[in-house]
């Protein structure tokens, strides 16, 4: 099969990639062992469950869902591990959120071979992927592209701030709200007893990390965004979760004899799950994409457990593909001129973000007139340096 007719080969199967722009692909691309192809187009004629190899023995976790059988459609009576109860499939991708990240059509260019190599290695080894690069190089969008291509549904996003803790990623517990609710109910009955365990699930919600670690049959995609903003202890705190594949919720562990199973909300809208004995163990380790702008170093023990990918600045072809995906105007001569101007300005300014180019292209192509003398001043404001509030002339 020629490079002009790229195919997906999975376990001896050949799956044509219609419409892929790959005539200039180097020999051996796509590689026969790739699952993620880097095209942004969903798998067809095959499911991820069919082609994803089993995890290495040291990355197998075997969690079982505590949800009633009716909620996930799997029998809990079979001794076959493949038939063990699991969580319901992930919700569909958030179309608006995904369109904002990826555009309305797939990119017309394939990901770099190094990117595809490392994404596939992370998938097969069940290891987190630490993605670094300058702002605007597409680090966060990689998680959405993986999810769309592999059909893994809604991306779970954990935006990191200086106040983020391991617990905030795992779950949140509104103890004050629970006490107030209990007090309001007791006041009407003249009762002064403390709240019992019956209602605790109404005040406990799993976070993005906690939801990703539920026993899903197929992995969820978890985006841990801007990790370099985190507290110094968070990378080490994550190590045990990533290695053990499980966590506990102390508030539920304490009442496990009185309430062995508690229904709690998850990070997915309008979804809940059942936590047994206060413990959660994953089944399919999530696809974890951790983004960093390279503003700090992480502990060696943390880096050793991640695969590391650095995304380069996009070239002219990739920028044109991004413009086409979001605006459909890459063939407009004004857009092509802006792409070249953007590359030159980016080199002078030490790097600009792709969304700054999209802003400029939209300003020009959304109007019927040609920009006048004031355009350069406006462009300077739109294409300001990323490390300061105002750009240099």
From TrEMBL:
It comes from Streptomyces rugosispiralis. Residues 1-100 are annotated as: Disordered. This is MoxR family ATPase. The lineage of its organism: Bacteria, Bacillati, Actinomycetota, Actinomycetes, Kitasatosporales. Residues 125-317 form the AAA+ ATPase domain. Pfam families: AAA_5. InterPro entries: AAA+_ATPase, ATPase_dyneun-rel_AAA, P-loop_NTPase.
